Each structure stands twice: as C-alpha cells, then as structure tokens.
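To the wet lab folks,

You asked to see what we're planning to order before we commit. Fair enough. Below is the target structure as tokens, and below that is the sequence we designed to fit it. If anything looks off to you, flag it before the synthesis order goes out.
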C-alpha cells in the first residue's frame, strides 16, 4: 500500500530532509523502499518497482484461496496436507512440488478452524508481531462483549479472537456474535471467505482488495437490527502510534458514515490493546479513552503472560472509549471495584487520597512523591539534580535530543521512565 512520509525530529523540531518509507515495515531488511520527498524518480526505477511488486504477489488471490479451501475440506483426512515451509494448504496435485518441504498430514476440521495454531506466528516486532492472545484473554473479551450487548466485532489484527468467535458461531446455535478480521497477514485468506477476512494494512488504512473489500467492511459496520459494533485492535507494539491512530479514526469515520441515527455525536466503541507505557501517546490522539487495569496475556510471548508478579507482569492493557464502570474485570483474578474512581482496578492498585485516583499502571503499589506531586513506581526515588523521580542508579546527564520512546527531552531511550522494566 501507500508509503508514509517521515522526518527526523529533535526536541520537537524537524531535522533533515523528509522521506517516504514503507508504512508497515520499519526495518529496511524487511522492505528497502526509500524515497526522498523532493526526489524525481526515473522511469527505469519506477519500472523496476513494478516488476518487484509483481514478483512478490501471493501465489493465489483471495477468491482462489476460497475455492481451494472448498476443495480441500472435501478431501479425505489422509489427503489433507499443509506445507510448513510455504505455509499453504496443499491439494493432491500439488504434492510433487513440495516433496522436499516439511509438511503436516491429516489436517483435521478442528485445525482448519484454528489457523493461528496451524500457521507460524510472524514475530517481527515492528511489522507483524503476531503475539497471539492467550485463551484466557480471548474468553474474557468474548464474555465482556456478550454482557455489554455487542453482536459484531471488527477484529483489526486480532486473529486469535476472530477464530474463537468463528468457531463458537459454527458450533453454538444461540451464539449471536459475528466477526470480520482485518489483517496484514494474507495467509488467513486460505481459511476465511471475503466476508470474513480483508487483507488490510492498519498503518495506512489500506485495503488490498480495493473498493470491494472496503465495502465489505462498511457493510459489516452497519448496525442492522440493532446489532451493536465494537472494534478491537492489537497492533504491533513497535508501530507508530500516530499512523495507527490515523487509520483507526478513518475506520471510526466509516462507522459514523453508515448513517445510523445517534452516530453523529458518538465514537465507534473501541478496544485498543497496547502496553501501558504508551498511555500518554494514545490519549494525545483519543482524549476520550481511558486505560483499564486488565492485564492482557499472550500464548507465544515469554514475558507477556498472566500470573507473573512484580515487574514481570504483562504490561499490555486495554484502552477504551467505553465508560470505565461498564468494564467488569474478573474478581477471581484479584480485580476489585474502586467506588471513588468508579472502575475496576488490580489488587495492588491502591487509591491515593492526594491524587484522588488509583494511580498504579503496572500492577504494583505505587507511592506518592510530594515534590513531584504525583505517584511514582516503588523502585523510584526523588533526584534533586533532575528534579524528578527516577531509578536510584540512573544517570543525571541531560540529553539535548528528545527520547525515542516517549518523545520528551531530558533523557535517552535506555533511561526512559516509560519503559516496562524501569
């Protein structure tokens, strides 16, 4: 899809020439596209780009994959194979081309309904970062949506949640929730129809299927028969918040333009799942959002797992524009309702009478600093040189450039107080 325009900044000021680069791949190793904003591109270079793009198209279109899937499920179990090297369902006539590859045999219907467990996760932190929701988190979200009366879930980069909804819908007659998956991973087109999956880049709001795919999304967002919609997104944590926010606002606008009464002064209900240390950045773009204490955990991430304690707890939270008191968190996991804040908080998040808020972000009990006039992490101490709280062994050296993580001046990325390990 379209590239994004970038510029290097120092203390909030632009430095150097502006340039275009890939919207999805922040690492040049994954996509080496680069072009200065004022650069004139030769016909030869444009032709070379076109040739490169043609040579890197998927083997099959989405529609072809749907037909292949229909043929695949008709095969007896003994003839159902999946090539692990090509990440592709194989029909018998294709076996010979994959003889030297590793493949799985006897692919069951249950496996086909759980493609996120069949496919290898793409774990590039800045592009795909397919850290898949643990079953606990999926079950929690699904129960919450049901209790809140939502009947349609726009799943943006949340394949595990989407497949759980699809599976339940096919097995339980009284299950009324539907889901549409928007994801940059085209491999999912092998398992879902064009009404269930759209190939989508959340960094530039690009539908690879063109206007037809955009119309599929638009129809899904139309709240027919009072079927309320909620958007759930779990972007790569290394992605640019500004680019993501721009795309999400466009999806919200699409929802508003469906023309339903009462949309004029409302936002589409949304769950943005992201680490807590990006709170200020998200609130910059969505002031109506608030952060919930619920710790989202992942199956294939060594650190972001439920049940860990102290600094080893998952830093991933839910940011939402729903009223906080509506988000009921599981009491059996230690969450409790704060009557003053009117929201559920973690067991270690004690209400600070001075701040008049439950201030902890990471699950530990924070302490109030009178000099900073706010609560800080328990491992921080007030530094008179820096005139703020920080780790006891921090460096007091001031840096001229803004921090890469939080954008604030006065420290480097390695010493950023917003990092989860500090």
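Sequence we intend to order:
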């Amino acid at each position: 899809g379209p590239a994004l325009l970038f510029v290097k900044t120092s203390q909030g000021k632009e430095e150097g020439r502006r340039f275009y680069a890939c919207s999805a791949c922040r690492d040049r190793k994954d996509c080496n596209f680069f072009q200065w904003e004022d650069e004139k591109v030769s016909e030869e270079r444009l032709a070379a780009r076109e040739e490169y793009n043609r040579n890197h198209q998927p083997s099959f279109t989405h529609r072809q994959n749907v037909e292949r899937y229909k043929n695949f499920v008709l095969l007896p179990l003994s003839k159902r194979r999946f090539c692990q090297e090509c990440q592709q369902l194989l029909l018998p006539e294709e076996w010979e081309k994959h003889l030297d590859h590793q493949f799985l045999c006897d692919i069951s219907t249950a496996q086909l309904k759980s493609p996120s467990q069949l496919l290898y996760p793409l774990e590039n932190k800045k592009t795909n970062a397919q850290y898949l929701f643990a079953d606990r988190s999926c079950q929690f979200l699904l129960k919450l949506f049901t209790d809140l009366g939502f009947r349609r879930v726009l799943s943006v980069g949340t394949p595990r949640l989407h497949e759980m909804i699809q599976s339940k819908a096919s097995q339980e007659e009284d299950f009324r929730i539907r889901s549409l998956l928007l994801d940059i991973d085209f491999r999912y087109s092998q398992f879902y129809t064009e009404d269930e999956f759209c190939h989508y880049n959340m960094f530039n709001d690009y539908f690879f299927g063109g206007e037809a795919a955009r119309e599929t999304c638009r129809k899904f967002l139309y709240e027919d028969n009072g079927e309320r919609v909620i958007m759930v997104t779990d972007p790569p944590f290394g992605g640019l918040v500004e680019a993501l926010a721009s795309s999400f606002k466009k999806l919200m606008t699409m929802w508003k333009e469906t023309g339903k009464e009462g949309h004029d002064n409302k936002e589409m209900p949304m769950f943005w799942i992201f680490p807590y240390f990006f709170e200020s950045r998200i609130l910059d773009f969505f002031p109506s959002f608030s952060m919930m204490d619920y710790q989202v955990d992942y199956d294939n991430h060594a650190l972001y797992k439920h049940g860990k304690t102290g600094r080893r707890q998952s830093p991933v939270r839910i940011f939402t524009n729903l009223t906080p008191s509506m988000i009921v968190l599981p009491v059996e996991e230690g969450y409790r309702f704060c009557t003053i804040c009117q929201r559920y908080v973690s067991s270690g998040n004690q209400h600070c009478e001075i701040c008049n808020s439950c201030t902890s972000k990471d699950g530990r009990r924070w302490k109030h600093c009178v000099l900073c006039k706010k609560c800080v992490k328990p491992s921080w101490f007030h530094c008179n040189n820096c005139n703020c709280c920080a780790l006891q062994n921090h460096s007091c050296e001031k840096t001229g450039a803004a921090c890469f993580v939080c954008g604030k001046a006065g420290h480097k990325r390695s010493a950023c107080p917003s990092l989860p390990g500090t």
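Structural context that might help your review: The first strand starts at residue 4 and ends at 10. The longest helix spans residues 241-256.

Thanks,
Computational group
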